[in-house]
Automatic annotation (TrEMBL):
<dbReference type="InterPro" id="IPR029068">
    <property type="entry name" value="Glyas_Bleomycin-R_OHBP_Dase"/>
</dbReference>
<feature type="domain" description="VOC">
    <location>
        <begin position="152"/>
        <end position="269"/>
    </location>
</feature>
<dbReference type="InterPro" id="IPR004360">
    <property type="entry name" value="Glyas_Fos-R_dOase_dom"/>
</dbReference>
<keyword id="KW-0560">Oxidoreductase</keyword>
<dbReference type="InterPro" id="IPR052537">
    <property type="entry name" value="Extradiol_RC_dioxygenase"/>
</dbReference>
<feature type="domain" description="VOC">
    <location>
        <begin position="7"/>
        <end position="131"/>
    </location>
</feature>
<dbReference type="InterPro" id="IPR037523">
    <property type="entry name" value="VOC_core"/>
</dbReference>
<protein>
    <submittedName>
        <fullName>Ring-cleaving dioxygenase</fullName>
    </submittedName>
</protein>
<dbReference type="GO" id="GO:0051213">
    <property type="term" value="F:dioxygenase activity"/>
</dbReference>
<keyword id="KW-0223">Dioxygenase</keyword>
<dbReference type="Pfam" id="PF00903">
    <property type="entry name" value="Glyoxalase"/>
</dbReference>
């Protein structure tokens, strides 16, 4: 039986200084810091999660900050740009806000949509577009009201070493539908109302390199734990080298690298970010999984400070 993902669950990227990361995504873009924890595979590194008021699947941008690390190189096998969507009629607000914070942007269009393209402080490529679909975020912070707030993902641009194989996977394995094509991109769409459009660049690119300013992986949604296990079996039967299920505390994960060399994850919607703290307290303190709690003092000593704060005029 053919399966279908409803769209993007989260996107994870490598960045630099953690406070700069929080200042940009919370202080400038107004997203909620929903979880401050560590990379479970490298506990000396933060894992910071941003999203809507509760970190809903489809809104979650996550980061591994590597202070003073080398810059990555964009290329084949990577996410070329991450698209965030805002309510219709608010792109003017976002143009003004990016200008106030001295963030250069370029206006562009693709498949009939208007975009603001810009970079975060560490070179990660982002886009903003306005769409009616997807519910509004209930989060307001630092001058971004819920009427203007980022709803979550619109989608992503994929850069592939083998675009035809990546496009084949999106349709035949992930269950997306081809809905458009122009001279540069082919567009695919899932059946969800958020994180649902994927544009694949038609030109094959030489491999990029991982580092600061580069997406580490893109994760797709599984409805629940049963659906997740079904995805694992489905991918294995399709010939992909999929990992065992890994407990990421806030979701379960499996990983595989598709033939265009992009690292894909499939993540469960549950249990979510209130598993270890209340909705009101999310993002305020460092949370560790039970197996790392005994190392808390050592871990905290190795991490730089990072907290969500409203930026002052002289910090713009």
């Amino acid at each position: 039986m053919k399966k279908q993902t409803t769209g993007i669950h989260h996107i994870t990227a490598i960045v630099g200084n953690p406070q700069e990361n929080v200042d940009f995504y919370a202080g400038v873009l107004g997203m909620r810091l929903v979880k401050k924890t560590v990379n479970f595979d490298d506990p000396g590194t933060y894992h910071l999660y941003f999203g809507d008021e509760k970190g809903s699947p489809g809104t979650i941008m996550t980061f591994f900050p590597w202070p003073n690390a080398y810059r990555g190189k964009i290329g084949g096998g990577q996410v070329g740009a991450t698209l965030l969507i805002v309510p219709e009629g608010t792109l003017g607000f976002w143009e003004e806000r990016l200008g106030v914070f001295n963030i250069p942007f370029i206006k562009s269009s693709r498949f009939g949509e208007d975009y603001l393209a810009f970079e975060d402080p560490h070179g990660l490529k982002l886009e903003l577009s306005a769409r009616n679909e997807g519910r509004k975020s209930e989060w307001s912070f630092g001058g971004v009201s819920h009427d203007n707030a980022i709803k979550g993902f619109g989608g992503a641009v994929l850069l592939s070493a083998r675009p035809e194989k990546t496009m084949e996977l999106l349709v035949d394995v992930m269950g997306l539908e081809k809905v458009g094509e122009d001279a540069e991109y082919v567009r695919f769409r899932s059946n969800g109302d958020i994180g649902n459009t994927i544009d694949v660049q038609k030109t094959a690119l030489p491999p990029g390199s991982m580092g600061v300013g580069i997406v580490h992986h893109i994760a797709w949604r599984a409805e629940d734990f049963e659906d997740h296990e079904s995805w694992r079996q489905y991918l294995a039967n399709a010939g992909y080298g999929v990992t065992p299920v890994i407990d990421r505390q806030y979701f379960n994960a499996i990983y595989f690298r598709e033939e265009g060399q992009i690292l894909f994850e499939i993540a469960t919607d549950p249990p979510g970010f209130t598993r270890d703290e209340s909705a009101e307290e999310m993002g305020r303190r460092l949370l560790l999984p039970p197996w790392l709690e005994e190392r808390r003092a050592h871990i905290e000593a190795a991490l730089l400070p990072a907290e969500a704060r409203i930026l002052k005029e002289d910090e713009k």
